[in-house]
Design brief:
mainly alpha, DNA-binding, homodimer, 125 residues, 69% helix
Chain lengths: 125, 125
DNA sequence: TCAATCTATATGACGCGTCATTCAATGACA
DNA sequence: TGTCATTGAATGACGCGTCATATAGATTGA
């Protein structure tokens, strides 16, 4: 039986979905149009920028985003191909990699972040 | 410059993302495992179930979900192939279609909905 | 020191959503 | 009524995320 509590939950869920899709969609389209990177690319870039100077990033990244390990790997592929990030081998553990922003990456991040924050403010109020 | 207001927005956004992905992921996996349909399939089924007896659904569906028109079309393809829904031509406007649950669709929906609501409650608290 | 196991990342096949386009039916208006 | 624009839906190419697996390096314990 469909209780009114169920109705509430469903409504709440749909409202979360709507605000999530609306916001993510708006940011994604804007970043794509102005900077030619998608939302996930930006978010990885953002995480890397947040933690300049610490080691073995890839691993840590996986813990700070809902993305899959393999998704992160592919996002980084694209960022690297775009010349925004570079993978550095890690001396203590040669399985690990850590990431560095290139100059281009740092530059793009800092202007894209402005846009990103503005759209968040606009959409989350 | 990164204001603390910006930090707050980013934190808020990440928290929305996490709760969205956690919830959507949990529901999707559960429905997939127990009923062999994905979250989007269920949500369309749910919308169709909500509005039994009204006409020309396809169109209306697009307005009640963040999915694209073409996404809805493909989800309905799968639901139809799975025998859960059927497309009915609409007499007044032969471009339009409306959807009907099959008996199997109604049955699956009513048991899957229980699971769905339970997971919503669990994840949205 | 050598297996067995575990851990960090990469990769390929696959499914799904998106965009642009297409197609058919409808409406508007001369 | 004939043209032109519009609308509802389907389709194909494409990009991305996921899952399962692969690979290489690390760790453990006998």
């Amino acid at each position: 039986m469909a209780t009114t509590r169920d109705r509430q939950l469903v409504e709440q869920w749909r409202s979360i979905q709507n605000s999530y899709f609306r916001t993510a969609g708006a940011i994604d389209r804007a970043l794509e149009a102005k900077f030619d990177i998608g939302l996930n690319e930006f978010e990885i870039l953002d995480l890397v920028a947040e933690s300049e100077e610490s080691a073995c990033r890839m691993k840590a990244l996986g813990e700070r985003t809902p993305m899959t390990q393999s998704a992160v790997s592919k996002v980084v592929d694209r960022l690297e191909k775009a010349g925004l990030v570079s993978r550095q081998t890690c001396a203590d553990d040669r399985r690990s990699l850590f990431l560095e922003l290139t100059d281009a990456g740092r530059a793009l991040h800092s202007t894209a972040a402005v846009e990103h924050r503005a759209l968040l403010k606009e959409n989350l109020g």
